[in-house]
Amino acid sequence: MTDETATAEAAPGPSAESTALLERVTAALGADAIVESGEACGDLVVRIAPDRWRDAATACRDQLGFDYLSFVSAIDWMPAPTLSEEGSGDTSSPVQPKDQTYGVAGSAGRFQVFARVASTRVPRSGLTLKTDIDETSPSVASWVAVYPGADWHERECWEMYGITFDGHPSLRHLYLPSEFEGHPLRKDFPLLAREVKPWPGLVDVEPMPGEAPEAETEAGEAEASE
Question: Count of CB atoms within 10 A of residue 80's CB?
């Protein structure tokens, strides 16, 4: 048995709850609306065809019983630009990828929109949906007519990622001045704070009361070893 075969056999499959929910989603939307699915931390993630994004919202509310919209947001799967190998201030663990990688249920490209819905009547119920966004013409149907709470989330997503939500009643800025250029949550947006000083986390940490500074501790250990 090869290592790859052993890993595949050891990998757990989707839970019974996720499998049952996926069957309900497929029955409500049709198999043609579902591109891919997977499970993350015990929750079902379903990737929806972009032209069926609005249909997915209606099905979630009217057929699947998900009466609560938790959030709508986006993600840029592009790797964060590396400013310098040394002194960049990136203390991420695990280390950020240098190649474009995707999460559960995959992606067709750089941008995706995510939504999380749940039922207020069924404890611990929930479903995460996502859809691919065309990088050259980033837009998708609005969910506001189905879930009015999507209004604020879609405005934020439009402002920060530059994704237009077709049918939104009033896409306008939440945080930035109207003349602001660019979209700050895109990975290629230049954040000057990263360039002029290290990330927070690379600051000198003051010792707790009664503790010796780290430099003194290291010096003492070096003397003891000699």
Answer: 16
